[in-house]
Amino acid sequence: MTKRYYLTTPIYYVNGKPHIGHAYTSILCDTFARYHRMLGDEVFFLTGTDEHGIKVQKVATAEGMEPKAFVDGIVPKFRELWSLLGIRYEHFIRTTDDYHKTGVQKVLGDLERKGDIYRAAYHGWYCTPCESFWTELQLKEGKCPDCGRDVERLEEENYFFKLSSYQQFLIDHIRANPDFIQPDYRRNEILGFLRQPLEDLCITRPKTRLTWGIEYPGSPDHVVYVWFDALLNYLTGIGFGTDDARFRKFWPADCHMVGKDILRQHAVYWPIMLRAMGVELPKRVYAHGWWKIGGAKMSKSLGNIVDPVEIVTKYGTDAFRYFLMREVTLGLDGTYSEDLLLERYTSDLANDLGNLWHRTASMIEKYFEGKVPQVAPEVWQTKLMRDTLALWRGVTDDVLRYDPREALAKIWSVVTEANQFVEEKKPWSLAKDPAKHGELADVLYALAECVAHIGILIGPFMPATSERILSRLKVATAGRVSDEAGFGEPMTVPGTPIEKGAPLFPRLDEKTA
Ligand code: MSP
C-alpha cells in the first residue's frame, strides 16, 4: 500500500520580504517531500502565509495601505522565492482564504459549546512586538521577559481557551511518544516548561485594538488571536471542513517542521487544541535552529537579514540549498556568512562533484567518442560500485531520521572516493596501451554509473543539478527508482552518446565574467 506523508512548513508572516531563515525551513521541507515522493509515497507538502495580526496591521498602516491590499502585494514575493528555490508544494494556504476563515470559526464555535472556551475579564501586561500577555510576576524588571522591550497595561474582556485542563494529558502524551517532539533536547525543554502550571490562553483581541483578524464567531467586538488562527492552517489546508476525504487521507501530519522560536506554540498550544477538538495529534514536531549572523539571530526586527535572491543569483539555487543543509546538523544553530558558502561552493561543489563530472565526461569524449563504453559485468563488484549502491540504504535512513547533513556527507564520501579512483586508475595511462582498452572501458563505465547514481540521490537536495547530470548521461530510469533494487540497476546504456555540457559549478570568476 502506498504510504502517505504529510509535511508542513510554518506559515510565514507577511510583514516583509522572506529571508534566509524562511528559506531554510522551506528548503528542508522541500527536500524531505521530494525524497518521500522518490520513495513512492503519496506526499502532501503544505506551506503558506500567516496574514492576520497586529504585526501585519502595523506595517500596512505605516505604508498607508489596507491590510488586505498590503498582504496581496507581499504574498507573491514568497511564491516567487519558492519557485526560484525549487520548492514544490501541493498547496499554498493563505489565512485570508475563505475556507480557512470558515474552518477557524467552526472550531471556535465547537470548543465554546464544549466548554473549553470561556469569556472573562483580563488584567495584565502586553508586549506588542511579541504579541504575548504577561502577568506581573512574569515580567523581568518591568519589561517583556522574551524580548526585553516595554509592555503596556491592559484591562479588557476576552475569550480564553482552557489549556490548563489538558496539561496532564499533554505531559503523558509527550512521555509516551518520544518522537513527538524532536530533537530530544527540545522535548526535554518542553517537559521542563510543563512543570509549571499552564495558564489558559487568551485567544481574542478586542477590535478596539486590532481589527485585522478573523471575527470571533460569538462576538462582533473581537477578532481571533493570530496564533489560534494560524495553527489551524494545518487542518484547513488539507480539507478540514471542506474536503473530508482528503483530510482523512492525510491527517495526522507526519511532521510539522518549525523553528525553535515557535516550538512552544506547536508543542503545547497545538496538541491541546487538537485534543480539545477530538482530533488526533501530529506524529512529530521537529524544531530546527537559527541562522545567525555575528552571533545574533537573523531577523527582520534586527535588520540583519540576507536576501536569498541575491545569493541565488550569484551561486545558484542548488549551491544555496546544499550549503544550508550541509553546514549544520538539523536542530542546531548555524552561522551564515558568504565566505563559508563560497568555501563549500569551491571545495564540495566545484572541486569535488563538478570536477568528477567534468573529468568523467571529458574522458568518455576523448577515449570513447563520447559514448558510454561497453563493459564486463565484474565492474559491479568493484569497491567503488559497491559503496555507490550502498548509498541508497544509508542516505534513505538518514533522511527518514531527519538528518540531511549526514545524508549529504555520505553521498560526498563517495564523490571523494570516485575522484580518488580516477587518480589510482590513471585512465590517461591506460589509454596509451591498447591491451588495456578493456580496463579503461571498465573504469569509465564505473565512473559514469557512479555519477548517475549520485545524480539520482541528490535529486531531492539539488533538483536542478540532478536533472542536468541525468539528462547529460541520458538516464531514462530517473524518476522510476523508488527502492534499493531499482537503485541497484544499471542506469547508463553502453553505446549511448553523452553530453559533457557546461561546468556544473563554474568558478565564480568565470560565472561573473
Ligand atoms: N507565522 C508564524 C508561524 C505560524 S505557523 C502556524 C511565524 N512566522 S515567521 O515568518 O516569523 O517565521 C517562520 C519560520 O521562519 C519559523 O519557523 C522561524 O523559526 C523561521 N525563521 C525565521 N528566522 C529564522 C532564522 N534566522 N533562522 C532560521 N529560521 C528562522 O513564526
What does this structure look like?
With 513 residues, the chain is α/β, with parallel strands linked by helices. It has a domain at 338-511: Isoleucyl-tRNA Synthetase, Domain 1 (Orthogonal Bundle). Helix content is 49%, strand content 14%. The chain contains 20 helices and 16 strands. The strands form four sheets. Strands 1, 2, 3, 4, 8, 12 and 13 form a seven-stranded parallel beta sheet that branches. Strands 6-5-7-9 form a four-stranded antiparallel beta sheet. It has a three-stranded mixed beta sheet with strand order 15-14-16, with no helix packed on it. The mean pLDDT is 94. Residues 10-13, 21-22, 24-25, 50, 230-231, 233, 258-259, 261-262, 290-291, 297-299 line the site of 5'-O-[(L-methionyl)-sulphamoyl]adenosine.
